[in-house]
Design a protein that fits this description.
Oligomer: single chain
Distance between the termini: 25 Å
Strand order of the largest sheet: 1-2-3-4-6-5
Order of helices and strands: EEEEHEEHH
Largest sheet: 6 strands, antiparallel
Structural class: alpha+beta
Number of helices: 3
Radius of gyration: 17 Å
Length: 151
């Protein structure tokens, strides 16, 4: 799989896009054949000039780097390539919940209640971790997630 160079990363393909950023599957190469797949979230270039949006993007990366939970992707890096701000994040392989529900609907199979409850519990655990997390000085981070979606 060959991609597009982006700083020390190689972009392999776009995964998603939202109102302020796009997300790419990427690869980071190291010495001795080492590599790892991750995602690069790139702030749209026209938003780098909008100070509140840029601050929000940077703040998101700093906050997420404070979290350590199996249901929250890790942030590895925050930086720029040219004038493009990005954050490098853990790649979580697999289907998202929205895709699972659609696949079940196409097959005429509803998602079993125990699976739904298990997924909801995992999301609630991650949100609880974020909400209760304190910084290194012991002060609450007071994180409230405002964008929980099935994908």
């Amino acid at each position: 799989m060959k991609g597009t160079p982006f700083g020390k990363y190689e972009l392999l393909g776009k995964v998603a896009a939202g109102g302020m950023a796009e997300v790419h599957l990427a690869r980071e190469w190291g010495k001795g054949g080492f590599f790892r797949d991750l995602v690069i979230k790139r702030l749209f270039d026209h938003l780098t000039e909008h100070a509140p949006t840029l601050r929000s993007f940077q703040y998101e990366a700093r906050l997420m780097s404070e979290l350590c939970h199996p249901n929250i992707p890790q942030v590895f890096d925050l930086g720029t390539v040219g004038k493009t701000w990005y954050m490098a994040m853990e790649y979580v392989y697999g289907m998202n919940v929205a895709d699972l529900v659609r696949a079940g609907m196409r097959a005429g199979v509803a998602m079993p209640l125990h699976v739904v409850l298990g997924l909801v519990m995992q999301v609630a655990e991650a949100l609880h971790h974020a909400h209760e997390r304190k910084d290194r000085a012991g002060h609450p981070l007071a994180i409230v997630h405002r964008d929980v979606t099935p994908h």
